[in-house]
Design brief:
Layout: E1 14-18, H1 21-31, E2 35-40, E3 45-49, E4 59-63, E5 77-81, H2 84-96, E6 101-106, E7 110-116, E8 122-128, E9 137-140, H3 147-161, E10 166-167, H4 169-179, H5 184-191
Parallel strand pairs: 1-4, 5-8, 9-10
Antiparallel strand pairs: 2-3, 3-4, 6-7, 6-9, 7-8
Amino acid sequence: MTTPTPSVAELGHVGLRCHDVSKQLAFYTEVLGLTVTDHDERLGIWFLSARPDTEHHELLLAEGRDAPVGIKLIQQVSFRCARFEDVLGFHRRFREHDVRLDMIVSHGNAVGVYFYDPEGNRCEVYWQTGFVARQPFVEHIDIETDPEELLDAIRASVERHGATGFTEESYRAWTREQAMPADGAAAKEVRQ
């Protein structure tokens, strides 16, 4: 009897341990607009979803983070938006709530706003453009440009670089920096 090869249908959820779960809960519900679908205060866990009728939880927040603030644990957690206008709206909301931004970029196939939650976890809200672009593709954009002009510029960039991918030097430098250990001495030892 042959067993079919198993396959993953999609990513279901991500769980984050938190230093201050109430602060994280406020951020993810009030700023990102996720819905709490369940919680157990005795266990210190909260389940959140952007689509509670379809997916019980896409994010789990749990007490008990013991890694110091500033330790690199998560590269990013990304939230897909249905419309470009949603990404624009989140950008405005992040500015209103003094959310620390990382970068605002075109990936050719998506437009993303990268930001940090209250505990420094790097996150992204993004919208899929429908264009095909080899990854990595990272081009900084001015999200306050007229939306039609911005999409025309992204389309033109994808026509130029979509087959090969594109990364700005500043992103390549940032990526190299992120891969280095936090301790400069340890970083020197690794390079030698």
